[in-house]
Amino acid sequence: MNQIRGSKQLQIGALIFPGVDQIDFTGPFEIFSRLPGATYHIIAKDKKPIKDTRGLILTPEKTHSEISRLDLLHVPGGPGQEALMDDEETLSFIREQAANADYIFSVCTGALILGAAGLLVGKSVFMQLLISLPLRCLPTPTLGYQSCLGYSQFHATPAYVPC
Fold first, then answer.
1. Residue 112 in contact with residue 84, Cβ under 8 Å?
2. What distances in angstroms separate CA 24 from CA 14, 37, 81, 92, one per listed residue?
3. pLDDT tens sequence across 136-155
4. Which pTM does this prediction carry?
5. Which residues are catalytic?
6. Closest CA to 58 of 78, 39, 73, 72
7. Shortest CA distance to 117 belongs to which of 132, 130, 106?
8. Do residues 9 and 141 lie in contact, with contact meaning Cβ atoms separated by under 8 Å?
9. For residues 29 and 159, is the Cβ–Cβ distance under 8 A?
């Protein structure tokens, strides 16, 4: 794995969308936003307020087009992921970021979004069994069934929070 750069401002971004599960977003946010020298961007297709799966309103600060290269892209899950799996604008944004990011990190069903973007082909992914079932319909990686971090540059995990 790459080491986090000590002398460079670390650029971290989380993709949010209607129907995101806020804990999949805010859990990692609490950790990543506290890294010394890190800037955490909240990203969506536009800057309109977004309702999470329970009605909490989240407000993105940047759009896809306003973000340059990220060091780490965080893709949370939630029932809204189904719409994103067919959203070519969002999938293209994810692919563009993945081409240059040091890390791509997903939580829970965010792994399905990465799969729809084609980023998991040939990768090992560890996730909960029920979440992995739809992933089998995509060109997929080797699947493991654990609640732990994935492999290499791509991390698809339910983290410590059950989905």
1. no
2. 10, 23, 12, 21
3. 545 444 444 333 333 334 44
4. 0.77
5. 108
6. 78
7. 106
8. no
9. no
What's the rounded mean pLDDT across residues 120-125? 72
What pLDDT is recorded for position 109? 85
* CA 140 – CA 116 distance, rounded (Å): 9
For residues 43 and 13, is the Cβ–Cβ distance under 8 A?
Answer: yes
Burial class (CB in 10 A: 0-12, 13-18, 19+), 76: buried
> Domain residue spans in the chain?
10-157
Neighbours of 33 (CB within 10 A): 14
Give the Cα separation of 60 and 63 in Å (integer).
Answer: 7
Q: What integer pLDDT is reported at residue 6 of this predicted model?
A: 54
Least Cα distance to 139 among 157, 116, 113, 155 occurs for 116
- The answer as to CATH 3.40.50.880 being correct for domain 10-157 is yes
